[in-house]
Amino acid sequence: MDSNIKNNHINNTFNVKESEELSMSLKRLNLPKDIKGLTYDQCNKLCKDIRTILIDTVSKNGGHLASNLGTVELTVAIHRVFNSPKDKIVWDVGHQAYTHKLLTGRYKDFNTLRKEGGISGFPKPSESEHDAFISGHSSTSISLACGMAQVMKLRNQDDYAVAVIGDGAFTGGLAYEGLNNGGNSDLNLIIILNQNDMSISENTGAIANYFSKIRQSESYANTKLAVKKTLDKVPLGKNISNVISRSKGAVKGALFNNNIFESLGYIYIGIVDGHDIEAMEKALNTAKMYRRPVVVHVHTTKGKGYRPAEVNPNVYHGVSNFDVVTGRQKSSNLNGKHESYSNAFGTKILKLGDLDENICTITAAMKENTGLSRFAEKYPARFFDVGIAEQHAVTFASGMASMGMIPIFAVYSTFLQRAYDQLIHDVAIPNNHVVLAIDRAGIVGEDGETHQGIFDVAFLTEIPNCSIYSPSCIEELNWSFDRAVYHESGLACVRYPRGVDKTTYPRQEKISDYYLNTSKERSETLLMTYGRTFDSLYRTKTLLYNRCKISTDVLKLTKIYPIPSEAINIALNYKNIIFFEEGIQNGGVAEHFLDELLKLKFSGRYTIQAIDGFVYAGTVHSCLERYSLTTQTMYEFIKDNLSGKADTFNES
Ligand SMILES: Cc1ncc(C[n+]2csc(CCOP(=O)(O)OP(=O)(O)O)c2C)c(N)n1
Fold it and tell me: What local confidence, expressed as pLDDT, does residue 228 receive?
């Protein structure tokens, strides 16, 4: 750990010697078991130390900072009260589980957080038996915990399934499906609702308003007082039925009127100060004693303990590496000379919005990250943040489209997976004109297999009347949106990668659905791709010629689906086609392209190099390398293809 971290931004006075002792104790303790034996004073010191480790590590490796700083005490309390791994702790989204990782034997390797082969940024059962389930996508924890608690019951196990879910994740529809199911049961299901009033941006919607009202109500103070008074008198573990009836009365008496959770069949305990370990412990121990579904509602401060993150929790929700003293992120996309695709989309959509009052934009809790902030500011009446609710966003968009508006839903490729039925049933079948701005399409890197945007092309191309554009640079992104908004009908998608446009390939005079770059000498080999990998493929073509005098032609698709018929006719003239695709192979464009060629009796060689499984964490470059999608690896792949197997090719 970097012992130089003694700066003003860390609110807690940080004592290096004390911290080193505690780091030692993090190493020495048999965690999570031994945490139960610490005094509250030791716990509080440990929390300070954990915060320093979090800030230090995330400042170097990037990751989710503010959410983790907010859940330090909460996690300590959870591990003092529950017995992981017998009790199952399910972290919703999983981006706030760093302290859990530190407390469950991963301190030593924590410096590898989010690195290839290192500690994952999300819970991962293959990494530790304490990670009850993988996560990454929001709002799954209640359903998972429900399922686990159900099995505990079937097996007569007196253990607990604990869902830890934020108020942002609580805006997702799946949370309500789980809540509905669990409330009607007698399971050992404990839902810890962590309210910090933030999703990535400020939490939005009626539920967020409702939670604020609960918090502001006078009963907040009353509840705290009543629970404390009752539990102070109750020796835990003794005469449990008495304890239950007494604490039940007290808790119930102090409930918020018409509490939604009570109405759905849950015992409700709250609101508890999520930074007060003792109070948390008491609330959780009470919850355990009921042996039926309980909601423990806690309040925390996102970014707690690091001033820049407390002041701007949205900026420090997910960060690249940053300077601890200034708080400045080192590789922020917008600071460099290259423009990010998200920012370019933000500019384009603003221009379209200026010219056309029918244009409106939708986000599922990702306003800043998808580049919609400027549109939201300028046209608040035409901007909609619907919460973490991708399914609703798609159907909501289709409702708007049916009334003549042009809705543009900006969404990460990975989260669009949530809305598959809505795309088919609510958009494609009625053939409503909904535009999807699919950000983070392709490999995203360090967040790993739950976040890679590698499935959208395969699942979208299965939907009738869906058109898809995959620009290779920002000029093409602008062109693609003009096409998708005004030249397509039905479901129209533009997909683009995470990060900035650094492409250098020579631009076409006029952008069109496809682009053919031929060599001076006629070539029998056609290299194909679309999207971000085109720039690398173009370099590969040059490399092949310069180093080996191998001539190849390159065909890039900008409109990738339906495949432009001219592109198919061009490809028919070649004897050897190699298609590189930054996406899952099954159902991808390369396979569809081959289908079209075969219908026209293509008899040459056709090779697909695409992704054939889940892509685990690494830098974007190293993930692309694994699938031969960088310049150097494409070069090697093509050389192999043309040499060893060239004989077969010539014979055919
Ligand atoms: C289905 C889905 N959509 C979007 C996201 C992106 N996302 C990650 S965390 C987050 C906000 C979560 O807010 P909350 O649950 O309150 O946790 P906090 O970070 O505030 O602790 C969002 C929108 C996601 N993980 N999953």
Answer: 54
Tokens of 507: 């631009």
CB atoms within 10 A of CB 506: 8
Residue nearest to atom 4 of ligand 1 (CA): 388
Cα separation, 381 vs 373, whole angstroms: 13
Per-residue pLDDT reduced to its tens digit, 271-327 = 999 999 999 999 999 999 999 999 999 999 999 999 999 999 999 999 999 999 999
Q: Which option is the CATH number for 341-495: 3.40.50.970, 3.40.50.300, 2.40.10.10, 1.10.10.1760? A: 3.40.50.970
Class (C level, CATH) for 514-642: alpha beta
So which residues are the catalytic ones?
302, 390, 418
3-216+260-311 and 514-642: identical CATH topology: yes
Atom of ligand 1 nearest to the CA of 300: 21
User: Per-domain residue ranges for the chain?
Assistant: 3-216+260-311, 219-258, 341-495, 514-642
Indicate the fold that domain 3-216+260-311 takes in CATH.
Rossmann fold (3.40.50)
203 CA closest ligand 1 atom index: 16
**Is 72 touching ligand 1 by the criterion CB < 6 Å?**
no
- Check if 388 has its Cβ closer than 6 Å to any atom of ligand 1: yes
Q: 115-153, pLDDT tens digit by residue?
A: 999 999 999 999 999 999 999 999 999 999 999 999 999
- Tell whether ligand 1 has an atom less than 6 A from the beta carbon of residue 590: no
Q: Dump pLDDT digits (tens) for 169-216.
A: 999 999 999 999 999 999 999 999 999 999 998 999 999 999 998 888
Query: CA 572 to CA 596: how far, in whole Å?
Result: 10
* pLDDT at site 480: 98
Cβ neighbours of residue 556 closer than 8 Å, sequence gap 6 or more:
472, 514, 515, 516, 517, 528, 529, 530, 534, 537
**Ligand 1 near 389 CB (within 6 A):** no
